[in-house]
Fold each of these.
Amino acid sequence: MSVLVVGSTALDSIKTPTAENPRLLGGSASHAAVAASFFAPVKLVGVVGHDFPKRYVALYKKHGIDLTGLQIVEGKTFHWSGEYEVNMNNRRTLSTELGVFETFTPHLPDAYKNSPYVLLANIAPSLQHHVLDQIRKPRFVVADTMDLWLNIALDDLLKLIKRVDCFVLNDSEARQLTDDSNIPRALKKIHKLGPKYVIIKKGEHGSILSGPSGLFIAPAYPLQKVCDPTGAGDSFVGGLLGYLASQNGSIEKNLRRAIIHGSAVASFCCEGFGLNSTTRATKQKIAARVRELEKMVGF
Amino acid sequence: MSVLVVGSTALDSIKTPTAENPRLLGGSASHAAVAASFFAPVKLVGVVGHDFPKRYVALYKKHGIDLTGLQIVEGKTFHWSGEYEVNMNNRRTLSTELGVFETFTPHLPDAYKNSPYVLLANIAPSLQHHVLDQIRKPRFVVADTMDLWLNIALDDLLKLIKRVDCFVLNDSEARQLTDDSNIPRALKKIHKLGPKYVIIKKGEHGSILSGPSGLFIAPAYPLQKVCDPTGAGDSFVGGLLGYLASQNGSIEKNLRRAIIHGSAVASFCCEGFGLNSTTRATKQKIAARVRELEKMVGF
């Protein structure tokens, strides 16, 4: 079954202690859509300007991504620029130019409205609501977010959390949202906001799922070389939902393996700038890392 | 088979945001010995002063710990005092009074010298060497350490690392020792210093073992209430080595389950001040948490 992905479609200029790469293909929807495409057909919703390089459109197409919902409008593509510290965990934003995102309203093509799996990748909660309003009876809706929306659009975000099946956020966002430094307690508090499933991403420390059958402690794939972690979280949710959409059986039964597939795709993302390494992954290479992870956690 | 534990035997005065407890039984050897005692007979090596409360001697005895190697000498027991921040991860030392530890030289009773399993719990590396010098053909030697020894006794520590089968340290110590912020790379660098097995403790994020059959990513037991994490790392290595000593078969075969047992015991440690909660654990309660962890990581 197919996955609908809405989120940001951007150009990222990224600086690390060892290299600098301008105007890479980036944005939460780009990372999530490519990650999901290894497992299921993907429909993209987003907006770019006329400056959006044709090679990036070709890249989406190479991954079989349906671009009917990608608006190409007058103006400049959303451009983010950031810099990582030596530890590759801390990063600071150097500049954010919203461009055509400033006036973006996601319109779903009719063919998108029956999408069974919906990923509201990181984007303003008001836009995530707007997409949900247009969807008919989705089977499973996942929403991701970022600290920015906790700071400037908390009411919208809280309303959104009530509407989704699975809410994904990172550990510092979970602490901020719940005002609680204890992750197991924070998970309980987030369930009270509505969602059946909550996933807290912890970067190199993996992730933790809380749902009806308790906690699932998931590892990150250990990497000896992290080139650029931008988009790893988006790749994680994209891979997760793509895998879910490709499987028969209940969400409950498949969600743990979906998370591991998300971890595996995210590890490829970290090994190259932008989407350079993700796009070189294959279903087989991802499956090999899933098997490795399986061996690394068994006892 | 039995476990020899050498380390500090101390009185800890601990302040958290919600409570304050003076002169608790503490020290790396106390935590490790009690943790190991759930699985195997334990022989303790340490030193205390005449002010050491009799109830603490009784506590050791209640756990069947052999105290032939515990020196009780003129002077004051090592006293550490520290304070935790609200997140219960960051702590600062308020005072350290070495007392009788200042002149301590561990002498092993003859009956200790054939101990097959040896835990060099956190203590000055020179003392860890001194204990190893007195041991005949141990089957498995584990050494733990702390940042203090990296700062003031690095040469001694590097020589010690060469002599042990398994070296245990936490993530920030691993980064400091290897000057590398990447944990998988740090593990490789520490292997080059000598030990066959390296375990990096990551607190609430669990631990990671590196050995001949690759990496093992181990979870911490998720706790909704952390009362006092002092001694959790010592309980982890104690539980780990106690479990190993209780099992037939190769180290390689048993080490992963041993780590999970260490995690489970450490979780009890965190639930009370000092050893208050650890001493209320039982082999059955620990086994129940091991089963829970097994369910939490399966996919």
Amino acid sequence: MAPDHSAPGADRIRVRYRLETPPDQADQLARAIAVEQTVEIPDRIIPPRIRREVVGEVESLTRAGPAATEATISYPPEFAGNLSELLGVLYGNASMLTGVRVVDFEPPISLLERLSGPNHGVLGLRRLRGIHGRPLVATALKPRGSSNEELAALAAAFARGGGDLVKDDQNLNDDFVTFRARVLACAHAVDRANEATGSRCLYLPHAGAPAEELERYVAFVAEAGLPGVLVCPMLVGLDAVRMLAARYPLVFMAHPSFSGAFTNAPGQGISHGVLLGTLFRLAGADISVYPGPRGRFGYPEAAVRDIQTRLRAPLGGLRRAWPSPAGGLACDEVTDAAVESGRDAVLLIGGALLSHPFGLEDGARALLDGIRAEFGETAAPPEPMAAAEADGPSRLAFESDWQWTGRPGSPYKDAGDLAFRGVRRVELVGRFGERSGSDLRYFEVEPGGYTSHERHLHTHVVIGARGEGVLVLDGRRMPLRPHDIACVGPLESHQLRNETDHPFGFYCVVDHHRDPPMPPRDA
Amino acid sequence: MAPDHSAPGADRIRVRYRLETPPDQADQLARAIAVEQTVEIPDRIIPPRIRREVVGEVESLTRAGPAATEATISYPPEFAGNLSELLGVLYGNASMLTGVRVVDFEPPISLLERLSGPNHGVLGLRRLRGIHGRPLVATALKPRGSSNEELAALAAAFARGGGDLVKDDQNLNDDFVTFRARVLACAHAVDRANEATGSRCLYLPHAGAPAEELERYVAFVAEAGLPGVLVCPMLVGLDAVRMLAARYPLVFMAHPSFSGAFTNAPGQGISHGVLLGTLFRLAGADISVYPGPRGRFGYPEAAVRDIQTRLRAPLGGLRRAWPSPAGGLACDEVTDAAVESGRDAVLLIGGALLSHPFGLEDGARALLDGIRAEFGETAAPPEPMAAAEADGPSRLAFESDWQWTGRPGSPYKDAGDLAFRGVRRVELVGRFGERSGSDLRYFEVEPGGYTSHERHLHTHVVIGARGEGVLVLDGRRMPLRPHDIACVGPLESHQLRNETDHPFGFYCVVDHHRDPPMPPRDA
């Protein structure tokens, strides 16, 4: 039987394209894209197995105007083996068609499980800074051409004025020796200012370098004890940023340089939200900078809201990231922009602060005062690990019918060829970049269903949760009801069965790194 | 005195933007871009030195329609420290403005001197293949989902049919072990076919991998003795491709996946020619694939011609690269497409060959026959190193007034702080990726001018060429007329002076790797 790719929870790359085409040609164009992005051969010679398993599937077509249709196409998750390949299947060859734009994108669960995403996210950055309850204010060190002393003096003034985060301008690109001298000068200046204020302003140098040397720049920042870096994902490569974020536990602030080529042409490219929201967060951006509706770029409000939503919404177990409106915000607009962007935003004010009539230090102080007047400020979260500020796995909201926010179920298929029936699996903790030693999963077995009969070296801790089931352990049968706990030891053959008329659910804790299951001894 | 940035030969990054803006606002927008791309601070606070040395300069504005203006802006060459930075200054923040498109771009001489560009170029690839005088025909191994045996059989059939070059489909993305098995299977099949035909069909695997592993894939291809790789510069990063091409002496075939986001929206992005022609060649593409005017993408003819021109025109000392029209060429259009594209093109025919009524092998044979009928074919160039086929430094055409094609003069400034006057320098050989042990330069000294008085460990071989000058060598004076040869030994103080009323020109040969000059002993 052909798999039902459009079933909810199916592990697929799901992309919504806006097609500028007459409605009667939309179906044909959508099918052509599904082929173009995957096998790129004439339709009539696609072998049946490859059509079923490899070619994209047009899941739906919706009219979106007199000459526009939105088509949802899903692709097998194997096309998201790495972020470069993912960009290719999203929009690689389709980019060369005219009037095709990516407007929504849902990554496959299996990709989310492999990515660690933002290293710090909303709560992590707040902990580094030690400020809760209000938006953060950032500035940029510039202009290029200034001496190290001039840039260091700007950084120190901003820190003394109570600024939260100071980054290099993305135009600062130097050979390593020059970079190192500049970074050490600015870091030293911020350190001195922090000692004076008793606060911790964060300094993020720009990691811009030839491909051979990019990692050396990031490693230097990490070894110097600095909290993070500024990167330009569309210049150095999205997957290169993902690699660096996975290797270095720094704050990654992503600059949108070069991204407008994708986002700003109506009818073509990738939507602002998908690129600067979803894709940048997948690459590990803790902070995504973009031009706000105010300022000299004037990005559309709907686009900006979409970026914000995608940075903050559940996305597998990835930490929430910070939207960072920028691009020529005037000082007297900052508080309004902060209210529009919400509390968990980094307001980036560059030129307006550099040219502030009070000077940079007092200008920063005045800005921060305005924001504190609007939002208040605390040195610690209102409640420890308050739900609204918790990121990623800190709290998973339990929903009706045994679902968890941000944790869609995935098909139960770990057991390979071992037989099972009617089992739903929800990975809860451990496969979303938590770096914990164990994984927590929830399994639910339909009436008449059973898990695979198997054994392995690793142990299972099983906790009954919903309804009643039977644990078969080396041939012995024992009931498992809510809050019953069972331990399956090394190489004990085991199976969980539902012999009732109601769903049977249980938690299972296993080592994160574990051996694969094998058939029972007596099989 | 402020430098004259717009002077011909000045070492600048020169970019022509098309601005969709009312004519009376074009000047303001152009000036805003010049600031945006370099210092990004309010105009009124730019310090004078930084305005002079760092900010872009608007060199010209030309009306290009009722609501369009073309603006040429030049930037200091330091903004091209690496290709990522270069993309940033070309279009980084400007991409986020609306109605700004890059339509022409001239790289700075100092960048061209640092880049090695295509490893093989037109002549090098012909030598690898052993075919001259006609366009080459390529195909792609697909669809994804096929077994290694199926793909290897396709490769072998194409090679037996006389095909020139077979590449992996860019959709083939695998983990390393799977990649290795596939590449070895296809390479083996092509080797066997080559043994049978006595020809040398070239197989280029796709290097598509996570950032951590990309180099490992390319290294494997090189170590396996294969001639080249397919890469997707817009997916893995333009500067990553440049790094790989500099490290591995392979043929790099560049696929345009994802590039349409830049090129295909009128009024936004980067022109087809600049991206797929100039920038891909700078990154080291020996072959640049793009959708031709025929086929399912239907790229505009003017755009395609611009790509072709930029791949083949003089560009510093970089080798000429191959245009490769693709994107659904039908078999009966191939000869016409070949005539349109010219002899030095790689015609890429994928799906149409896979579904050829004669089968792949005979289909390829029929295609090649058609092309041979049109162009002929030779196993060696008509004349050894024929000028029309020679790449890069093989022949530099001497023009009137002591200029060479593709070798603009650059300011004479190697000598650092040492005084000189009225000297023009033309780098001829050695700094354009030739990997020769010595460099050849031409210097011309104005009446009354002189080179810096200096000494160094390396030796100079000087050949008089134009007019008459004086060589001062450790205090001795000697005349230098056309074809006089002088040798300056280690640590001999020397200077060349023009004491006549006419220009004095000479060649100078030096070691490629050499010590910097220092002042004379008696200074």
